[in-house]
Hints:
Low-confidence stretches of chain A: none
CATH superfamily of chain B: Thiamin diphosphate (ThDP)-binding fold, Pyr/PP domains
Number of domains of chain A: 2
Strand order of the largest sheet of chain B: 2-1-3-4-8-7-9-10
CATH architecture of chain B: 3-Layer(aba) Sandwich
Oligomer: heterodimer
Low-confidence stretches of chain B: none
CATH superfamily of the largest domain in chain A: Thiamin diphosphate (ThDP)-binding fold, Pyr/PP domains
Largest interface: A-B, 38 and 34 residues
Distance between the termini of chain B: 18 Å
CATH class of the largest domain in chain A: Alpha Beta
Number of helices of chain A: 14
Structural class of chain A: alpha/beta
Radius of gyration of chain B: 18 Å
Structural class of chain B: alpha/beta
Number of helices of chain B: 11
Number of domains of chain B: 1
Largest sheet of chain A: 7 strands, mixed
Largest sheet of chain B: 8 strands, mixed
Radius of gyration of chain A: 21 Å
CATH architecture of the largest domain in chain A: 3-Layer(aba) Sandwich
Strand content of chain A: 15-25%
Shape of chain B: globular
Amino acid sequence: MKHMELMVGNKAVAYGAKLARVQVISAYPITPQTTIVQYLAEFVAEGELKARFIEVESELSAMVAVQGASFAGARVFTATSGPGLLLMHHPMMEGSDLPVVMSVVHRSNKSMQPDHSDLMAQRDNGWIQLYCENNQEALDTALMSYKIAEDSRQTVPTIFGIDGYILSYTAEPVEIPDQEKVDEWLPPLKAPWAPDINISVQEWRRRQGRMSGSQKAWIDHDTKFRNSLGIIKEAHASFEKTFGRGYGNGLLEEYNCENAEAVIIAMGTIASTARSVVDDLQKEGKRVGLVKLKCYRPFPAEEIRNLAKKYHAIGVIDRNVSLGSNGNVFNESRSAVYDMVERPKILGFHTGMAGSEVTPQIISKIAEKTLKSIKEPVDPIVEWVGGA
Amino acid sequence: MSKPMPFQRVEGEEIMALGNSSCQGCGHAILARIAFKVLGKNTVYTSVPGCIWIALQSSIPLYWRGTVFEGGGALISGISNGLEATGKEMNVVGFYGDGGTADIGLQALSAAAERNENVIMICADNEAYMNTGGQRSGLTPIYASTTTTPVASESRGKKSNKKNVPFIMAAHNIPYVATASIAYPNDLVGKLQYAKQLKGFKYLHVQSTCPTGWGFDSARTIKVARLMVESGMWPLYEVTEGNNFKLTYKPRELKPVKEALSQQSRFRHLDEKEYEYIQEQVIMKWKQLSEMDGKKLPI
C-alpha cells in the first residue's frame, strides 16, 4: 500500500536524506533551509536515523566537513540557501571530486524570497544541478542524487534545488517510498578512495580521483563532468522502473507538446504553474507546449537541439539573470542551437526574481509572444516580465 | 600529563621519506619527522595551504587530504566523523601553519575544538606567512620585520603583539593543549604520545624556527629555537583535563631576550627601548605562568 503523508518541501528533502540512510550530516541554519536541519536533527535525536550530525559554525565548514566525511567513506548530506551557498563556493570548487549531495532551498541574493540566482552562481564548479517542481520530486530527486553522485564509474557532487517558501514551507501530499525498496535500489556507499590501513598508501594514492595541477586536469574534469548526463538519465530510468514515478528523461520533460509548434522552457515551481497555462492555451487552439528543464548542469545541449528540430520557437523563462548579459538558460539554449542549419526563434524572459509572483497570466503572455514569434518579428527578444 | 621521551626510543618505523623540498634548515621538516613517527602509520593527516603542504606533503607517505585555507578545522572534523561512521579507528591530524591555525583558519578550528572532535591539531608556528614570502601573521611577534611590516623611516616592524593561540584553545576547555619546540624533541615526543592516546580535541602549538624568514644561518635552526625557549620568549607548558596548567620546562634563570633576538635579522633594527619592552613583557608573562604552574586555570 502506498504510504502518503502531507508534508512541506523541507520535510520531503529531509525524508529523502533519511531514506538514503546518510551517515554524516553537517549543515548551518539559514532561512528558508533551516527546518531541513531541524527535521534531520530530530530524526537523529529520536534514533530514526543512525547518522552523525556535525553542528558546524558556518556553511563553509559544513561543506568542508561533509567533504571530509565523504573522503573518509561515509554517505553525506548538507543543505543551504542563498548566502550560505555563496559562502560554500570555495570548498565546492576545491573538493568537487567527492560524491557529496546537497539540497539548496533557493533564496534570492536580493531578498529572502526565491529565485535561482544562488544556484546559478555555482554553475561553473563541476556540481550537477537538478531543479525540482514539487515536494514529491524533491524527495525523489534526493534519492536519485545519491544514485548519480555515487555512480561506481565516476563520482560527481550533486545538488538538487527547491524554491524557497513556495515549496519549503508549503505542504503537499507526498508518497514515501518503502525503506526496504530504497535500500535495495541504493546500496551502501562503496568508497575505494577512503583511507584504509589494510591497503598500502601507494595503492591508496592510485585510487584518488582528484584532478589538479595542469590544463589536462581541467580537460579531464570537463570530460568526466559531461559524462554525468548519461549517468543522470540512467539513474532516472532506474528510479522510474523501481518506484513507478518519473520526470521526463531525468534531464528534461516535454509536457503537452504533441501538437505544439512552440514551447516554453521553465524550471522549478514555475513549471508547475506553466502546465495549467499550456493546457488552457491548447484548449483555445494555441499550439504551445511546456518543456520542464530539470538538469541545468551539465547543460543538456543535445536535448535542446532535439527540441530545436521539433519546434519553431522556444521561449525561455529564466528565474535568474547574469547581470550585464541575459538569463543563463536563454544564453546556453541559443548557443546550443547556433550551428544548426534551421534554427528556431529563441526568446528570453526574466521573471520571478526575488520571489516576485509568477502568475498564470505572466506565463500566458510569455507563451503567446513565443507563439507569435513564429509568424512575425517580435521585439524585444529578451524582456523582464512581472515583478511590479 | 606527558612524559618526555627521546626520539630514538619511539617504537615503529620512520614515516618521513628522505629528501623534501623545504628550505635548508627548515624547522617544519624536523617537526614532521618527529610527529609522524610518534603518530604512526594508522594516521590520516590533512593540509591547508602553507609551507607544509607545498614543501613536505610529497615526502610524507600517509593517507592525506587537503582543503581550503579556512577549512582546516572542519576537514579534520568531517574525516573523524566519517571514519567513525564507517567503523574505522585512525588518528586524524591537522598539520597547519600560522594562517591555517591562528588567522584565516581560527573560526573553523575554534568550532571543532568547541565540539570536542576526536582529532589532533598541530600548529607549526614559524611566526609569519613564510610560504608566500614572509608576510606578517597573527603569530608574528612585535617589532619583527616582515615583507608586509618592513622596517623603514616610518615603520619599526610589526606593530602588535603575538596572538596567544594556545590560551585561546585552552579556553575551549578541551582535553589537551600544549606548547612545544623543535629544539626540545623529548618534550615534544612525550606530548605527542600523551595526545595520541586521549579522546577528544588535542591541540599542540609547536614553535618551528625558519632560517629564511627569521634571517639566520640554516645551521642554527635548533640553536635559535632553543634560545627562544631559554629566554622565555616561547614557554613550554601543557594544559591537561581541561584546566590543569603545568610548565614543562623551568630554567633556573631566563636568558636575556637579546641573546635570542640578536641572532635573527628580523630583529636587527631593535633599539634599546624596544628590547626593553620585549624583555619586560617576557618577565611579566613568565612570572604569571610560574604562579599558575601546577594550578587550575579559571576556565
